[in-house]
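Let us begin with a simple case.
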Amino acid sequence: MQRIAIDPSQIHDREIALTPAQQHYLTRVIRLQTGAQFEVIDGSGKLYVAEIALDRSQPPGTTTARIVTIVASDIDLANPRLPPAITLICALPKGNNFDDIVRACTELGVTTILPAISDRTLLDPSPQKLQRWRKIAQEAAEQSERRTIPTIGEPQSLQSIFSQIQTDSTKYLCEARGDRPHLLQCLQTQTSTHSQIIIAIGPEGGWTPSEIDRAIACDFQLVSLGRQILRTITAPIVALSLITAAIDANTRPQVLI
């Protein structure tokens, strides 16, 4: 079933006021007919099943949607423990590579992405870039059938981001060189009850010594992603894959045979 993302303000008395772009996509692009059903997420974890309907109070051809079913929130009722939120701090790479990072990490379950301007960052993103990243996150959430859309923060200096980090979190900073424990080893051996996992990925050329010192002062644990030197676009995907796999392993209900 096709899935789209909406803003919660579009819902009024089990009716969804579709935007012109959403109307065009549903009725012209994927050609849903009146009465056809599709899925809707509002970014908060709720999932709805809605059906296409004609809005007779508006000009002819105006399409609306009627909510048929409200599905439970995104918490497994058999295992109600809420998994930790995942925050990715990622130094902005050159070009449009951050587009791919946002898309892939959204599919992998990231909760928040904080674009960081590090000492070696060369990109000076425009406000249009932020709008584009948020649009990519929404589309990736729809495609991967997530019920929540990750938050994409405005680009900030690394020092500013560190100053806003919650103390109740498990924090890792990936360093390409140096004798550091592997992230996988840390995830397997450290049983954390923290509500948030924060992972920081550096720019091309890596973190500077002063940035590493700053991270240590903020209780980040320095970790490795392996012996190979990964590209900035690859490292977040590897890190998120390891974290989500560890979370799934810890929160999945045990099946007794």
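The second case is a distinct protein. As before, the sequence precedes its structure tokens.
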Amino acid sequence: MVHKRILLCSPFAFHITSHHQSVIENLENLYGKRVMQPDNYHGFVDYRVSITHSGGIRRLINDQARFQCDKMEPFKPLNRTQAFAMLEWGLNWVVAAHEVSHLIIHSAVLAKDGKAVVFPAPPGSGKSTLTAYLSRNGWRLLSDEMALVTPLTSTVTPFVRPVCLKNDSIHLVKSWYPDDTFSTIAKDTHKGDVVHMAPGDMAVARESEQAEVVGIVFPRYNKDVFFDVYEMDQATAYTTLAENAFNYTVLQEQGVKSVVHLVENATAFEVEYNSLEELDSFLTEDVLGAAHVK
């Protein structure tokens, strides 16, 4: 059976087609009222994507999930139990590969009082665990995966979607927030076991509210380090931030100037930590606090 839904996830609208009931169930569970029937939506659709079965006889032998957008298939087929995780990764790919009205940085983004901090970080750094914690402790989630920055400004637009938790962080975050909403588990993906956590009500209610980037923090969890922080010079911050920008080269000169603007108008730090509470205090008092003083 073919299922179709519209996902209204500001600033984009996605038309989603799936053969997998589990995809629709997880989609509606995590996105709630932002998912609707296509017949009830009369607005513009930015992207049309699908999660389909394997074709032909392969479906009878080993039914898999395939992601497509405009007949492009950027990923190899995955086990059908990984279909919803594949959709989430596919939505990341669609925006990163096609969006040119924003500078897109691979990072988490959280805000307080209209001031945002971006957290670019490689896999294994603990970024999503940090995102889940901050988003339930007074910070507004704008994104777990990508900062949508208006070129030549410090303005970041929310793209509020579930937080992607992996491996040990799944059980840890579930133990912190047992009453929150989580997807079914996708086992043995290329990232290990994966679960998605629904964004909080505040993040969704304010998904159209932009913020100004005042801090760039490169976090790295280290169980042996309580808290160490190093201020990063602008040249290093520029290079590292540019490496995390999906469409930096596509935007060409505008991309270069946009990254320069960010590092000139935000303080940048590298932080190694094992205490989320200490990191939260540093972000609030030293990063946001310094921005308010300015």
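The CA atoms of residues 227 and 271 lie 7 Å apart. Residues 3-98 form one domain.
Keep these points in mind for the review questions at the end of the chapter.
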